[in-house]
Amino acid sequence: MASDLVISATFTVEPVRESLEFWIERLQLPFAVKFAAFNEVFQTLLDSNSPFAANTTGINVVAFRWQDLGQAGRVEANAKSLIETVAQSAARFVVPLIVMSCPCSRSFVEEPGMAELVQQLDAELCARFALNASVHFLPSTAVSDAYPVPEIHDPVSERLAHIPYTADFFTALGTVLARKSLSLRRTPNKVIVLDLDNTMWTGVVGEEGWEGVRIEAERLAMQEFLLEQRAQGALLAICSKNNEKDAWEVFERRSEMLLKKEHFAAWQINWEPKSVNIRAIAKKLSLGSDSFIFIDDDHKECAEMRANAPEVLTLQIPKRAEDVSPFIRHVWAFDRGRVTAEDRKRGESYQQERARNEEAQKAGSLAEFIASLDLRVAIERFQPEMLSRVAQLTQRTNQFNTTTIRRTEAEVKEAVENGKVHCITVAVSDRFGDYGNVGAVLYSIEASSLVVDSFLLSCRALGRGVEHQILRHLGNEARSLNLTEVAIRFIATPKNAPALQFLDSLESSGESGGLYVRLFRVKAEYASQLVYRPGMSDIALDAPKQEHTRPQMDSKWVGAIDYGEIAGRFNTVAAIRAEICESKPAVEFVVSSSNSGEGSEPRNETEAKLAEIWAQVLGRPSVGIHDDFFEMGGTSFRAVELLVRIVETFDRPDLTLSAVLESPTVARFAAGLGTRRQVRCLVPLRETGSRPPFFCVPGVGGNVLGFRGLAANLPADQPFWALQAPGLDGSEPVDDAKRIAALYINEIRTVQPHGPYYLGGGCLGGVIAYEMAQQLVAQGEEVAFLALMDAYNPAYAKMISRLRYLFCHARFFVQRLFRKTQQAWNKASQSNGRNVTPGAGGVAGPLARKGADTKDPLGILARVHDANLRAGESYVPAPYHGKITVFCAAQRKVEPYQDRFLGWAPVAIGGIEMAVIPGHHAAFDRGVHGEVLARYLRQAQSVKQRKEVPTSVPAVAGFTGSLTLGQAEGA
Fold first, then answer.
1. Which of 484, 702, 785, 948 is at 20 to 30 A from 456, Cα to Cα?
2. Helix, strand or coil for residue 162?
3. Span(s) in the chain for CATH 3.40.630.30
4. What angle do CA 61, 66, 71 make, to 5 degrees?
5. What is the pTM of this model?
């Protein structure tokens, strides 16, 4: 069953889907990628009905840029709000939350003090959530450090569709996100076992001596990485065919060696088979060898290990020293989802354990040794900061684990907070040092029994009476609650014999639920007086048994993964992108006879350049000049990338996205590329069909590409024409709604000279469509259908009474108390003139307000956006005597003017028909309302044909609010 990987971002993040889904398929992860509404991070975090709140088995992701939080003077204050919102919201989610700080644009970090502020905020976010079990933070450098790319930012695509990064960077971003998601769904390996010759150094110490082996910078980089792993909780061990004295001389006499003898928890340096030695190491450490990673340079030794110890993850490092460090750092098996305080102490604790063992050998008896330890056991009720450790104990503890029930952090949190179980944690120390938090018990109260669901104790604390003290504590707890017994559930596994040995040593009655399931009933009074007597019931740890198949740490989530192949083949973005292209299934599409064979090759230099761009964007080895971009798998995001490359290659800033729609083949695009002409406003998305044409106006950005999804979701016999904003070709934009409407009417008359007309528009486009209907009616034409798609009356506040105005604001401020952080974000976004949600077909995201270059594509887009913004803000709609059909999103924000009809009631003399579309405002961009629109449109066309009064079409869902123009469109 698939789980959701839900992503919410302050920028258009959808291009990350390609690489993310590539890794999900390759790693066999059961994730379905979903995206929350554009630039609604605060809303998605706070809303109890958001995709984050509904996600109960997957992972939530927040991706943001600090610069998207407001202008320079507001960034820091809004950043504090974001950090607090993350903290408050994550506590409510039952799944992990990944928070990714993504790179800010060059122009932003070059502003005075901004680069320092970004570093400061990243550091603050990291420190705030370092001990938070639910939040996993990735700083702005995380992606580039792991997968550097030649160019991160793409300012042109950012202006076109608020896509701030290059395709290469999105590939890297998706890869890092996949790695992090995997680390949160797998149990990390516990031990890294290392070969020595040609692994830790270059050369054979037995032949060249300690002074002859070479320790290059690349080998030191590998050692540095291994020390990082040790600091995060991995144990280091050596398994090498050498004379032990020769091997240790390198560590002792070569001063440049970063690793020293004290860094290793165990070693086997001899001439025995390495599979035998690795089992000996496992026995010494009291750990199963299925949690081991073995690293060697020799393919024969690796083959022997894979054959005779298949449960061990065996990695063969590259032969060349310069390739070793990149390989090691791209082994995903080393990634850890969460590092606890106990993890950081693990290496030190095993050093302490060696000291204890030496002391035990000196002691006259076990009782004398235990007495000399000065053992201190602290048993406490569960505290929230212990969540990660308790979950970790359920996942990693095998030998003293009474049921081996694995629980995620979210599952532990939910069970404890809902009162389903109680939890105690156990910390141990002695005169040699601190063991850390080594145990936990999850239990419930049922009738007259304290029922233990999971009794967990780390193997390094066994055999010292800690388990006896825990049971004594449970007995006292049961007596304090007037319970008569402590009942301990036990489920047998191949590894938890030590737990069974302890339970069998108790005075108990019990029940058997089968061969492997038992219930031990211990009287509360007996348990409360339990005393450990060394030698009477000491636990013997099981030696790891031979296993013939490699068990997966969490087979529920992770399939068989070839970590070596990933590290060796896919450690660069170029290699990953090449594999993504190679793995894409062939796209079947209908072609004409001219599309294949003779005549499909480029006929001139222009077509050759365009064909190369087509192929690069589509990820294909070649493209014919008559192959349709969209039929070959091109998407709206790919169209943006395509146009960006064409603009840069041919120096054509006058080109708009409609050019890709009108000329989707190389041949057609090349034919129109040679002339520079003013772009028509009218763009055909479907020219033919038996129905009357539908004319639709996009949002504040004026681009019509976003309507492609809507057109595709309409019936095949419905012609669809879009109207892009004047000025996108570099000419002077128009900032008056009535003038824009008049211009559009002149254009649509070239297709349809007379009515009845069928009109529509999204957000600001709906306002323009409303004015077009007004002018057409005034000219004696009939408007049979007017669709306003999530478009708000910009002058509604001026049309209501003073009392209503004051009431709306009072209600708004009361509601804002419950969403203080969300409203702070909205206020900052509005004051900066930023888009919170993109309009249908509009340009999303912040646009430059000063110094817009009339020849630069970025400046052109900014000027058009600002002109449309002014047109919407100054427009006051007059009463309209025809019927209006308003399509609105079901999920809405808290706003001052919450009007059921989006503010159109005061001017809709002819009546309003409402259709509610599930989801957020962004659903209109994806055209998911196409079927609903088609239903209303066909009804209007049928009524016109029959000359009958239309019947009401039921709304899709209940209505929940409204959007102001500024909030919905950035206008």
1. 484
2. coil
3. 375-528
4. 140
5. 0.61
247 burial (CB, 10 Å; 0-12 / 13-18 / 19+) is buried
pLDDT at 102: 94
Please tell me the CATH code under which domain 191-334 is placed: 3.40.50.1000
- In angstroms, rounded to a whole number, what is the distance separating the alpha carbons of residues 941 and 27? 51
Q: What tens digit of pLDDT does each residue of 524-558 get?
A: 999 999 988 765 445 544 434 433 333 333 433 33
Return the HEC string of 3-22.
Answer: EEEEEEECCCCHHHHHHHHH
Q: What are phi and psi of 453, to 5 degrees?
A: -85, -40
**What's the token pair of residue 872?**
């919407």
Q: Which residues contact 958 (CB under 8 A, 6 or more apart)?
A: 890, 916
Based on the number of CB atoms within 10 Å of its own CB, is 537 exposed (0-12), middle (13-18) or buried (19 or more)?
middle
Q: How confident is the model at residue 919 (pLDDT cuts 50, 70, 90)?
A: low
The model's pLDDT over 698-744, given as tens digits with 9 standing for 90+, comes to: 887 777 767 877 887 788 888 998 888 888 766 788 889 999 999 99
Query: According to the model, what pLDDT value does residue 841 have?
Result: 37
Could you give the CA distance from residue 262 to residue 354 in angstroms, rounded to a whole number? 11
Say if residue 281's pLDDT is above 50: yes
d(CA 397, CA 390) in angstroms, rounded, equals: 10
Q: Across-strand partners of 197? A: 201
Exposure class string for 344-373: b at 16+ Cβ within 10 A, else e: ebbbebbebbeebeeebeeeeeeeebbeeb
Contacts of 592 (CB under 8 A, 6+ apart): 626
**Domain spanning 586-641+660-677, CATH class:** mainly alpha
What is the separation of C-alpha 799 from the centre of its chain, rounded to a whole number of angstroms? 44
Residues in CB range of 471: below 8 A, 6 or more apart: 486, 506, 522, 527, 530
CB–CB of 577/168 below 8 Å?
yes
CA atoms within 13 A on the CB side of 38: 30
Hey, what's the torsion of the CAs at 504, 510, 513, 515, to 10 degrees? 30
By CB atoms closer than 10 A (0-12, 13-18, 19+), residue 552 is middle
Question: What CATH code is assigned to 375-528?
Answer: 3.40.630.30
Sign of the C-alpha dihedral, residues 537, 538, 540, 541?
Answer: positive
Mean pLDDT value of segment 649-672: 77
φ and ψ at residue 206, rounded to 5 degrees: -65, -25
List, for residues 412-444, the tens digit of each pLDDT value.
888 898 888 999 999 988 877 778 888 999 999
pLDDT, tens digit, 9 for 90 and up, residues 477-526: 999 999 999 999 999 888 888 899 899 889 888 776 655 688 999 999 99
Please, where in the chain does CATH 3.40.50.1820 lie? 678-971
Q: Is 545 helix (H, G, I), strand (E, B) or coil?
A: coil
Q: Which residues contact 404 (CB under 8 A, 6 or more apart)?
A: 398, 491, 493, 495, 496
- What share of residues in the chain are helix, strand, coil (percent, to 5)? 45, 15, 40
- Are the beta carbons of 740 and 734 closer than 8 angstroms? yes
Q: What is the CATH number of domain 678-971?
A: 3.40.50.1820
> Diameter of the chain by CA atoms?
111
Delimiting residues of CATH 3.40.50.1000 domain(s) in the chain: 191-334
Please check whether residue 960 is in contact with residue 891, taking contact to mean a CB–CB distance below 8 angstroms. yes
Phi, psi of 953 (to 5 degrees): -100, 130
CATH number for 3-185 (one of 3.40.50.1110, 3.40.190.10, 3.40.50.970, 3.30.70.560): it is 3.40.50.1110
Q: What is the pLDDT of residues 444-453, one digit of tens each?
A: 999 899 999 9
The encoded tokens of residue 301 equal: 């030794």
The residue among 420, 293, 396 whose CA lies nearest residue 342 is 396
